[in-house]
Amino acid sequence: MSKLRKLILVLCCTLFLTISLLIVLLYTSLGLRLVTFTLEKTIPGIHIQHVEGTLHKFELDGFHLAMPGVEVNVDKASLSLSGMCLLEAKLCIKNFYTKNVIVNIDTDSIPSSPSPKEPPKTDDSPFMLKTPVVIELKQSYLDSVKVKVDDMNFGLDSFHGSAFWVKDHIIVTEAKSNGVRAIFADTPNTNVEIEQSSNRSIPEQLQQLFSAPLLSHLPEFVIPINVSVLKLTGTDWLLHLVDDYRFNQLTIQGSVIDNKVSLRHVESDILNPYQDAHANVSGTILLAKSWPLNATFNINTLSDKSAATVVKGDIEGDILGLLALNSQVTGRNQFDLKANINFIEKYLPLKIKFGGQHLQWPLIGNADYQLNHFDLQLSGSMEQMSLNSHGSIQATSWPNTVFAVSAKGIKDGIHVEKLSVQLEQGKMAVSGEANWKKKLVWDLKTEFEQLDLTKFITNYPIKLAGKFKTTGWLDKKQHWSVSLSDSLVEGTLRKEPLHMSGDVTVNYAMQPSANHFLLQLGNNKINLNGNMKQSLTAAIDMSALSVFMEGLSGQVKGDLDVSGTLTKPNLNTNIMVNNLAFNELLIKQMSLYGKTTYDQQLSGELALEAKALNYGDSIQAKKIHLTLNGNEQHHSLTIDLNGEPIAGLVTVYGKLNRETGNWTGQLANASLDTPAKKWTLEQPIAVTYNNHQSLIKVGAHCWHNASANLCLTKEATISDKGQADLKLNDFDLAALNLSFANDIKIGGKVSAAANIHWQPKQPFPTIVATVNSNNLNLKPSHSKQPITMPVSLNLNMDDKQALLMWNSDLTQYGNIAGQIKIIDPIAQKKLAGHLTIDNFSLALLSPLLQEQDYVTGLINANLTVGGTLNSPSITGKLTLNQSDIHAKQLPADVQSVFLELTFLGHSSILNGDIKTQQGNINLTGEADWQHLNNWQAKLSAKGQGLNIAMPPMLTMTIIPDITIKATPNAIDLGGRVTIPKALIKVESLPESIVDVSSDEVMLNNQLQEIKPKSLPIRVNSHLLLDIGDDVQIDAFGLNAKLKGQLFVIQSKQGLGLNGQMLIPEGRFHAYGQDLIIKKGELNFAGPVDQPQLNIEAIRNPNLVANNVTAGIRVTGLADKPTVTLFSDPSMSDQEILSYILRGEGLDNGEQSENDMMTAILIGLGTAQSGKYVGHLGEAFGIKDLSLDTQGSGNNSQVVVSGYILPRLQVKYGIGLFDSLATFTLRYRLMPKLYIEAISGLAQSVDLLYQFEF
């Protein structure tokens, strides 16, 4: 009994100690540390940064496992167990959490181990993975898992779920996973060796492939654990297989039991590059025996109901047996597809039926391609197949086409019974057969009727009818032959008649033969006949070249004769071209003669001659003669050019080494007449060209001008990499006859040097260049003294930076210097630089002005440039002061100008003053280019007055108060301009001024209409023009004052005026009479040339009898005025006209009817002849000679007046009815003071003074 007690005691103690040990290990940190220590010591590569808690509940930071080919990193992990579940014989995991799990696996780096010997099988039943206790995972959460296996990437953003594991069955109750990714590399593994079969033909490879079943057996899979997924949801899943396939709103319900996979429900939105859709799939597959498969699917495109496409179908059968597909497509696309295929029989027996009403691509939206009312039936096997199909095809760039095909194929050939194509206009039929048993051989016959291919080739409208037969063959050695026979084609091409007939054959040996093969298009003919063994002749006769290219014209005649063999051909050429024209190129006559043979090497002679060659207005050549003769070892080329702007003679000698591909030559002599005078080659130039390397080398040489040399100082290499050193000495710019502003010539001698290097894939070449001139000058045509300035430029550029430096030391006129640097010109494009202007004197520019004109002033600047090319910044200041301007060409009385422009990085401020006789005009402005594509600028001008004089027509004073705003899109002008005083005097318009016809059309050199160009930037204006009290006009007989306010408005519709202009007083000389303006109104409401007129003018009351008021009233628009006569008292128009022209009525008893008509006609005649009398006076040196009438009634006189001296005016008048003459001399003593002597029936001397009030 005592032994039993002792045994029980020992067992109890052992159990107690075991339980105590388990409690210590599970519920104290000691057990966790022990396990961690054991793992790190026993498994190499494991490192745990930090762990706390117990085995029952712990948290882990920084887990790292490194093994050959495997690396695992876990940022955070935690595990929590439920101890109460142990009482139920279950292992419960309350919570399992991981964050940032990264796994990298390189399968090539994993060491291989010898395969273990298989233990003897004791049981044929499959192995199943079982758990002795129930394991329950109540909650798991995975945050960011990334797995990389070689070049494949897998991962997920988050996973949350719960599961049970009971014996050999895992049940996932509910889970959610987002951001699942499976990305497979686009490029296949290049290390995989593919068996080459280039020595075998494609028919032989197909024969071997299908002579046995494609699938003879499939393995039986037994999955060692059963899995059931009650519900798995997720979104943003990605599968990358060449393209991206995204799955959203995904739901999966299914199971894997033994070797049966069941998908009860799979549903998802699928986004892909082809067509987004919503899919439902269900089915089962047994991974054993014949792999029976049964599945249904339903796919609906993600679009509106009217454009959606629904695909329904099922797959049923055995993969190792007969598999059947049956699907129906409804919606935007409508068709059925039925297919049966047997993978376990040789030659792959199949039967496919595919047909429906409509199929388009893309499946939704606007269709690029459409297949309508189609049916396709394919049956048989790869040994013998039958195809029947019909339907219609539509495409955006393809006309509607109805097709039908019937063909039978065998394993080494095909017989096309019928292939018909019906277009909107015309049809085509093809029949024949092809065989590829030993080599590809074909024999096809093609017929077509009224075939219109215009929609295929829109630039070349073509219609065809006819037939032809084509035969040929192609073997394994790439030897081939193609023949076109029994051809007879008629039609039109670009509305020109087209004809083709005859036979022609071409083979791999390039030995063509032809039997009266004629190709004719309009008046263009090419006739081929013969063969190369004897003579193959091509007769060319073309006189309608515009058929081939619009704008091309001329005549080409001649023949080509080819004989011999491919290895020893002979070619004789005789071509004449007349009146060739294309765009701006014109060639009056051109001929090409040549004889070429090849026997071991190419030899012969070739002569090309062109006469009267013109290219626009830039190139004119009277004659070009090019001759090439010799052989590959010794040949010469001579170019003789007689033309403008270049003429000369060039001779080249060379030889070719066919084996090395090297051509070596010498430019023996050359002389060129250019606009920069004559250039002569000082010594021959050595030139080599390597065809294999595409490399050109040019030896050092110099070209000599009258006073300059242009040299290549070292041998230059030209290929994908190379260099060149150039040098120019004492080149006179005057030889180029350069000018600007029409009459300012550019001259002076310039010297320059440049070193250029380039490398493959180098974005920019490396350039080091200098340009220097000590006497660069500008010389106006009216001045004998040029402006001379020294200039120095230096450029240093490569793909890292570009630096340009300049300097001009003008001695007493100041100095201009600066540099600009672009750092990283490809990517960052940073800018750095500065500009310094030190006391630059404007007096240097005085020679550009007229004699006795001058300008002075000093410009100073110190600017710094920064930023980038896309966002440049400028800081610093630029000033103009101490200026004095005296220029007759300047219409304004500007005396001096002060400007200060301050740059603030991406903005600037302008302040300035313009000093005039009337006072100062203040200038203010600002600009901003922070956003270079949306820059802004503003300028305001406000002042006391500015005198403007454009003698003899205009003198005025203006007071500006205007603002100009500018952006990349528009210029806005606003403000007010006041004109307090002005005198506008126009005696006559130049005779050259002629109104433009409304139907005028401008044409270019090709007689094509030139469309008027709109302004590059829109101009908007809203400017008030205020006309003051002292504005006078003296033009075309009108002497009057003007007053009013006008708004100058410009918009998209054009320029317009709004407002009213008044003529408060004035006179108008017309019909030989002095009319007084009684009322004058011009109302503007739109176009400038369309004012509304309301003007009344009367004859001077002092010159009208009987106190009658008679005048003319003008109303209406300016282009269609209405002129009426009026009087007070009222009377007939004849009576009014008599009072206007004579000052008396028609019933004046003192004058006869003849006298009245004489006075009227003389008055009208003198009014119309003023222009011609003025021209006559100028011929005799008399200024302002005029013919006029004075007086009224019997006192009417004809008066001739003019200035014989600048201050002395002579007048002579003679009465119309009394023949009394009056002679008058008027002399101007000073402005507005005259002395006048009159001699006639009475004599008088008067002193006249003119004043205004």
From TrEMBL:
The record's keywords, sorted A to Z, are: Membrane, Transmembrane, Transmembrane helix
On whether Ubl conjugation is a keyword of this UniProt record, the answer is no
Query: What is the protein name for this chain?
Result: Translocation/assembly module TamB
- One Pfam family, short name: TamB
What is the species listed in this Swiss-Prot or TrEMBL entry?
Answer: Candidatus Schmidhempelia bombi str. Bimp
UniProt keyword annotation of Membrane present: yes
Q: Which GO terms describe its cellular component?
A: plasma membrane; TAM protein secretion complex
Q: Which domain of life is it from?
A: Bacteria
Q: Where is the Translocation and assembly module TamB C-terminal domain?
A: 916-1253
UniProt membrane topology term? Single-pass membrane protein
Subcellular location(s) of the protein:
Membrane
Q: Which GO terms describe its biological process?
A: protein secretion
